[in-house]
Design a protein that fits this description.
Elements lengths: L2 H20 L2 H6 L3 E3 L4 H7 L2 E7 L4 H16 L5 E6 L4 H6 L7 E6 L2 E7 L4 H11 L1
Parallel strand pairs: 1-3, 2-3
Antiparallel strand pairs: 2-4, 4-5
């Protein structure tokens, strides 16, 4: 087998991998928290019927502790609940608008309206209980 044949085979395999990923964008997008900014926050909250937004910062240890829980919940509730993450250091306008004083803070929106809030790194069961009240 020549070098060109091997290169062509690798290119075709990579192309097939990329094409298979493109066929499933909605499943992977819904199963992961969406990175939110000051500019896309309102559109995300109003476009989805039920939303949980994690307000966090890179330097915040409790934020890093709760991040895997938020990711698990996003996967678990894919198609029912839209999850977002907003970095308060990079997006101070939205954090200020909602009076975020401590992080992590999770805000719950139903029909575009704020309906609940959890401050601090809480166990997964606490977040599941809050979500089940609204779903």
């Amino acid at each position: 087998m020549s070098y060109d044949d091997e290169l062509e085979r690798i290119k075709m395999r990579k192309l097939a991998e990329l094409m298979s990923k493109k066929e499933r964008p909605s499943a992977s997008v819904l199963a992961e928290p969406v990175e939110l900014t000051d500019s896309n926050f309102d559109e995300f909250v109003t476009r989805n019927s039920f939303v949980v937004v994690d307000f966090w910062a890179e330097w915040c240890a409790p934020c890093r502790a709760i991040a895997p829980v938020v990711k698990e919940l996003a996967n678990q509730y894919a198609g029912k609940v839209a999850f977002g993450k907003l970095n308060v250091d990079e997006n101070p306008q939205t954090a200020s608008r909602f009076g975020i004083m401590g992080i992590p803070t999770l805000l719950f929106f139903k029909g575009g309206k704020l309906v609940d809030m959890v401050v601090g790194a809480v166990p997964k069961r606490v977040l599941e209980a809050r979500i089940s009240q609204y779903v």
